[in-house]
Amino acid sequence: MMIQGLYAITPSGLEENDLLSKTEVLLKEGIKLIQYRDKILDKRTFQEKAHALLKLTKKYEAKLLINDHVEICLEISADGFHLGLEDYSSEANSELLKKNKDFISNNLICGLSCKWNKELVVNPPENEIKWTYLAVGSFYSSNTKSGVPETNENLKREFLSYTDKPLVAIGGINKKNIKEVKNLGYSCFALSEALFKNPKHVLNEYKKL
Question: Among 54, 70, 140, 209, which is most buried by a count of CB atoms within 10 Å?
Answer without folding.
Answer: 70
